[in-house]
Design brief:
144 residues; alpha/beta; four-stranded parallel β-sheet; 4 helices; 4 strands; 33% helix
Length: 144
C-alpha cells in the first residue's frame, strides 16, 4: 500500500486512516488515493488495494490526474492486506462487491462509481472529479 507504515501518533491524536478498495486497484482507488494525498497534506494516512490487482495503473487515470497536477504515475496496483484494513478508520469500497472483506467496528462506505477502464477521456475526467468531491467531503468528515 502507498503508506507502508501503520498509523502514527501525532502530538495529541492519531491521524485518521482511510483505505480505498476496488477490484484491480488500477483506476478508481488509485485516483482516490492521489486526491487524498493531494488534499490531506500529510494530516491523514491512506492506502489503496484491490482484490485482483492489475499489472499497471490505468494510463487514462494517470493522464487525467496529471491534468490537475496530481502525479499517480509511480503507483503500483497492490492487493489489500488484512493489517491495513484492520488499521483503517474508514474503508471505502468502489465496485468490489462481495470481494471486499468486512471487519467489525470499522466504518465502511461504498462509492458507486463507474469503472474508468475502457472509457473515453471525458468519462474518466467525470469519474476523477466525482472522486475528488467525495474525498474532499470525507476529509471534512474526518476533521482534516
Amino acid at each position: 500500500m502507498t503508506d507502508a507504515t501503520p498509523p502514527v501518533e501525532g502530538s495529541d491524536a492519531i491521524r485518521p486512516t482511510v483505505v480505498f478498495l476496488c477490484v484491480h486497484n488500477a483506476g478508481r482507488s488509485q485516483m482516490a488515493l492521489g486526491w487524498f494525498h493531494h488534499l490531506a497534506g500529510g494530516r491523514a494516512t491512506a492506502w489503496s488495494g484491490g482484490s485482483e490487482p492489475a499489472a499497471t495503473v490505468n494510463p487514462a487515470a494517470v493522464a487525467v490526474m496529471a491534468e490537475l497536477g496530481i502525479d499517480i504515475s509511480s503507483a503500483q496496483p497492490k492487493r489489500w492486506t488484512d493489517a491495513a484494513l484492520q488499521a483503517a478508520d474508514v474503508v471505502v469500497t468502489m465496485g468490489c462487491g462481495d470481494a471486499c472483506p468486512i471487519y467489525p467496528a470499522t466504518r465502511y462506505e461504498d462509492w458507486p462509481l463507474d469503472d474508468p477502464a475502457g472509457q473515453d477521456t471525458d468519462v474518466v475526467r467525470r469519474i476523477r472529479d466525482e472522486i475528488g468531491e467525495r474525498v474532499r467531503a470525507l476529509l471534512v468528515e474526518l476533521g482534516v
